[in-house]
Amino acid sequence: MHPTARLAVRSSGFRAAAGTARLSRFQPSTLPRVVVRFSSSGSNPQYEFIQVTEPRPGVGQITLNRPKALNALSTPLITELNTALLTFQSTPSIRAILLTGSQKAFAAGADIKEMAPLTFSSAYLNSFIESWSNLTTTLKKPLIAAVSGHALGGGCELALMADMIYCTKTANFGQPEIKLGTIPGAGGSQRLTRAVGKAKAMELILTGKSFSGEEAEQWGVAARAFGSYEELMEESLKTAETIAGYSKVAVQAAKEVVNKSQELGLRDGVEFERRVFHALFGSEDQKEGMGAFGEKRKAQWKDQ
Ligand code: CAA
């Protein structure tokens, strides 16, 4: 377990704070000016709606923390989430990320009170909800969503943006937007349909009916469903830690090729996979992994 980690990100120069030599590979970019502290205790004074921790070696955890509104996804919450994800993406010691909510609610959807007064022109001109997609476009590190309780509307869509979903059997997934006179707006009609097929997605989206975590697992929405909240969190952390223990180069490549399968036809997808597979023969970690197998020892990854 890593002790409290402190890092300071500066938009000009990116100087790591004292005691954080492992942050030296920050990429100079357009990262926001933000000071982030994440600790095993979960106190992050600069965040109001999320908690950021490092519960296991190499694992960063973001916990949605707006309990009175069942983690409704307001714009300020999403802004904090994006900042935390970007910071984890830029922190070399973080190798896998866990996104979770509370036992009662992963997230009960986009914030209805924020959306209620929106007009077409304000939503359109301000690209309302577009920033949610940062999660899928900028995050190269693997993201596991651990879902307990409600994952409705935008909450379901947020979970579907993760690389894999673990949930409790009693989790409450659904796209109830139709009941509010609207439709899914953060990718639900696309990602849920890819996950469960057109017939089921159409039924779920047109009726607004919920489905359980047990069904999510049976239908391939969730990778695994667990009998209790405690088991969910323990198994999610274990999986994140397992992934964090592999070569970063191979993990990023694996995520990239699986995600491409959602966009390319089979022939192009297989071709893309083969190109990336060939490229990995140029990595030191491929030599190390296969060499260690031959020498019957544990591989020492260099992330090169
Ligand atoms: N937005 C804003 N506030 C919400 C919310 C949401 N999506 N979901 C719950 N809350 C708030 C409630 O207003 C309530 O606050 P107050 O105490 O101030 O009234 C608090 O959270 C607790 O909620 P309930 O009292 O309703 O709790 P419950 O246990 O009786 O019911 C629930 C739980 C079934 C999840 C119910 O809260 C509910 O139906 N929520 C809305 C779910 C929904 O429709 N989500 C889709 C939103 S639209 C969307 O997400 C669009 C998109 O695609 C991006």
TrEMBL record:
Keywords attached to this entry: Lyase
Superkingdom of this protein's organism: Eukaryota
One Pfam family recorded for the sequence: ECH_1
InterPro entries: ClpP/crotonase-like_dom_sf, Enoyl-CoA_hyd/isom_CS, Enoyl-CoA_hydra/iso, Enoyl-CoA_hydra_C
Family according to the record: Belongs to the enoyl-CoA hydratase/isomerase family.
Protein name: Enoyl-CoA hydratase
